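S1.2 Input.
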Amino acid sequence: MCFYPARPCGLRIGTIGLIAAAILSTAAAATESGSADTPAAEPAGTLTLEGAIAAALARNPDLAVSEFTLKAADARAVQARLRPNPELSVEVENFAGGGALQGTDGLESTLSLSQVVELGGKRRLRTDFALIDRDLLGIERQAQQLDVLAEVTRRFIALVAAQDRVELARTTSEIAQRTHDAIVIRVQAARSPEAERRRAGIALTRARVEVQQAESELRAARQALAALWGSRQPAFTDASGDLLMLKPVRPLEGLLAELENNPDYLRFASEARLRDAELRLARAQARPNIVFGIGARRFEETGDTALVAGFSISLPVSDRNQGGIREAVVRRSQTDAQRRAALTQAHATLFGLYQELTATRMRVETLRGQALPEAQQALEQTLYGYERGRFSYLELATSQQELLDLRAAIIDAAAGYHRVLAEIERLTNAPLALEST
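S1.3 Output.
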């Protein structure tokens, strides 16, 4: 009897393709297609990681919402370029009085047009501030795209792992069925006790339940992935990926140097520019504007008309925008402090993730290269002894379960490796895998 297939179960042919920043060109193309009037097509057939990322970046609901934020920033920049509107005023004097000013006999009416002239380059500085703010929002959108890309990768890994667990559960059920059938024959031939048939039946029932559970988790994983591109019903059939393809990764020192290229930290550089522009604008606001006016005055009593002109300027006696300037200085210093704190935390996080990645890779290689062959050999020896009456069914079932548990542990460890890899690539905005030579 053969209770276990020679082919390792739960492993698919294909490549997960290691992960976010390595396919940013795909992401950019998807973003461009997503901005068109016609949305990208729903992924169908066998789904790759690249296809999932392209669909998510083109159709993700959260990214669609952020597009409105950028359009609003563009509108603010347009508004910042505009000059103050001129002001039209009408003034009426010397009417409805007493004596010679009774009624409208002594009426004087003035029609004037005035214009605020902004000093200190306020309009230019205001425009610069709006444009830099727009740039900052653009970088934040890039970070949001990376977040979506990383989440797609995590859910894609979960889907591939769920597929592998379904295949493993089905293989387990097949083994339990063959074992049960073989034991029924042995019981009928009075070579095994009835209790062994009952134990085998219980194991078969549990295996079938586990298949149902694994299939349910697979459906949930498919739905979770499709939700990232706004789909309520996945159109793709399966995901193509090999969890056991563990390529060598770059040294930690090189990854630490990549941290500042991440949009999360580029944002601090743009925010520093924004705070500098805010400070320049605050200082310019301390300079008063001049209001020039010119108009015509009509004297009702004589029927004559004369021009009037004037200007006004506020006197910065007490309010010289000291508070606004001080606030801008403090916010600029705060940005530098936030950047230093974020980079320090990122270095610590990256170091911890890299150690976890190394340990998980070692775990996968040890389980796959050492423990799995030993478990396979132990099962073969136990099966050989069971057929000759040297081992009980309980010992055979234990040996089978150990091998199945080991395969499940390999799937979990390999999926964990790729998840950590995705977290590091999200943190550094750089691919980790070394190109094969």
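S1.4 Remarks. Residues 141 and 159 are 27 Å apart (CA to CA).
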